[in-house]
Amino acid sequence: MEAGNQLVPTAPIRSASEPILCTRVDSSGSGSGRWKRVVVVGGGISGSIVAKYLQFHADVVLIDQKEYFEIPWATMRTTVEPAIADKAVINHADYLVNGNLVVASAVGVTETEVVTSDGGRVGYDYLVVATGHSYSSPANLKMRSSSSVLIIGGGPSGVELASDIASNYPEKKVTLVHSGSRLLGFIGCKAGNKALEWLRSKNVDVLLEQTIDLNSLPDSNGIYITSAGEAIAADVHFVCVNNPLGSKWLQESVLSDRLDKRGQLMVDEHLRVKGRSNIFAVGDIVDIHERKQGILAQRHAAIVAKNLKAMLKGELAGKEGKEVKLGKYKPSVAIAMVSLGKKDAVAQLPFTTMSGFLPGLIKTREVFLRKTRKLLSV
Where would you find the membrane-spanning parts of this chain (predicted)? Predict the structure, then answer.
């Protein structure tokens, strides 16, 4: 199996057709048992947590396009603070010490295997789909050498990037174009208004209810034309909207009928794909009605890891086929917090909105990097 797949050799991986026999090493360095294979597709924060938590309970295989993942809520900050770039990158091999990494894209899934982009076929007993949204890192070198920057999108990523550039490079001309009538439309008006006031106080030109055609390039002079006909001169632009959902690879798979009209996987209260007893989904790809946030993806991962441990333990104890009590995931509202430069932030709390130095102390100091790295023990 996986001939042609690039593997990070943390442990040998067998052919999908071979019986999966692994030796469990307990505290005394001995012990044995038959392990089931858990395949995790997607090495973002939720997929990484599931793989880490299960690596000593199953034969874990993580399939990801890269040998590392970037903490998404820190990638914008690395544009203006290269010193934290290394902290925002976590190598899968640093935490997956008793599992296997297949460096490839998943292109399909059958009842028993995941098919990869290089022709590999990875057999599974349990599958966890964690291919949420795709995020790209801004081109920081080009940004630093530019005199004018265009940012497309007024959600949290666009606002944070604009505020970071304005704070660190006040000499640059920054323009933010947003299709909505206010910034940060996913939270309350008050928070969006505070962010708008802060950006304009830093001379960021914010254009609301306008768009940029992403399919057209600027002319030779670096001029972008908005939907309202305004001309914007910019040396470099960043797109902070329309990050694609990573479910296209499932459209012609055995899970195609489990995708909703948005391309999200429909899951039950245990985060199992509906109608499937051995397939789970976590992170942005699930159809749970809540914000797509990293903290919530981490909670998904914790529930799925707990449920899989219970199912694996039941099978190991000879209880296969008997009902195992599984934990339930309850949708929740996470605190929304958007940094504004190095010191300030705006926060939407359950009963109030805060802005300024106090929420900034929580959010802007390393952008939760230390907490995330601690979660993965790296």
Answer: none
What per-residue confidence (pLDDT) applies to 221?
Answer: 77
Stronger pLDDT, 275 or 345, i.e. the higher one: 275
DSSP β-bridge partners for residue 225:
231
Strands (E), the chain: 6-8, 37-41, 59-64, 68-70, 89-91, 100-103, 106-109, 113-116, 121-123, 126-129, 148-152, 173-178, 205-208, 223-225, 231-233, 236-239, 279-281, 336-340, 344-348, 353-356
Nearest to 339 by CA among 220, 166, 134, 114: 166
User: pLDDT tens digits, residue range 215-242?
Assistant: 876 766 789 999 999 999 999 999 888 7
Q: Is 336 helix (H, G, I), strand (E, B) or coil?
A: strand
Which CA distances in Å does 71 have to 137, 202, 310?
Answer: 10, 27, 29
* Angle formed at CA 122 by CA 118 and CA 123, multiple of 5 degrees: 155
β-strand pairing of 6-8 with 100-103: antiparallel
For residue 327, the tally of other CB atoms under 10 A from its CB is: 15
DSSP, res 331? -
Q: What angle do CA 246, 17, 115 make, to 5 degrees?
A: 20
Amino acid at 309: K
Sign of the dihedral through C-alpha 360, 362, 365, 366? negative
Give the total residue count for the chain.
378
With 60 as the cut, is the pLDDT of residue 96 above it? yes
